[in-house]
Design a protein that fits this description.
Elements lengths: L1 E4 L3 E4 L6 E3 L11 E6 L6 E6 L6 E5 L1 H4 L9 H6 L8 E8 L11 E2 L5 E4 L4 E4 L11 E2 L11 H11 L1
Parallel strand pairs: 3-10
Antiparallel strand pairs: 1-2, 3-4, 4-5, 5-6, 6-7, 7-8, 7-9, 8-11, 9-10
């Protein structure tokens, strides 16, 4: 299947790799179909590209790379909605905000308040909102661990299951 994008031109995707959101991402309620793929040769950043709106794409990251102690409970109703039967089926990604280049003092941030939960088996996904007293929408990335410290199998698993 071919998907037209404004950022990447026309890309060829396999239909079984399409991630279907049960509800739109906050601010984008009508966009429900996306594809996830790595940013260039990066082992850390991914693109979540809408297949319905060519101009809509988000930079994403595995939140556990940014905050290793990140944890939350997926509500039972969301597990049921996403048809999650086993924790091994779950992948979590978070949206990254890259500031305008004119303000060099702003940091790249990650939305830890609104993670995206993906059932890697069914390709169903949903953004959930966590406790704002525990997590923030603009958590500064700061420095990432050296690539050698990132578990290669975790990255391959994330990419294989979500893309």
């Amino acid at each position: 299947m071919e998907v037209k994008t404004t950022r990447f031109g026309t890309i060829e995707i396999e239909e079984d790799k399409i991630i279907s959101f049960t509800q739109g991402i906050l601010g984008f309620p009508n966009e429900r179909k996306y594809i996830l793929f790595p940013h260039k040769n990066s082992k850390i950043f991914f693109w979540l590209q809408s297949i319905e709106r060519p101009e809509l794409a988000f930079v994403c990251i595995d939140p556990f790379l940014v905050k290793p102690d990140y944890e939350f409970e997926i509500p039972d109703r969301i597990e049921k909605e996403l048809d999650i039967k086993d924790p091994s089926e779950v992948n979590v990604i978070t949206l990254v905000t890259i500031p305008n280049r004119t303000n060099k003092e702003e940091l790249i941030t990650v939305n830890l308040l609104g993670p995206i939960v993906v059932n890697a088996k069914t390709k169903l996904a949903r953004q959930i909102v966590l406790d704002p007293n525990k997590y923030q929408v603009d958590y500064p990335i700061g420095t990432l661990p050296p690539i050698q410290q990132i578990k290669e199998h975790d990255l391959k698993k994330q990419a294989a299951q979500c893309s």
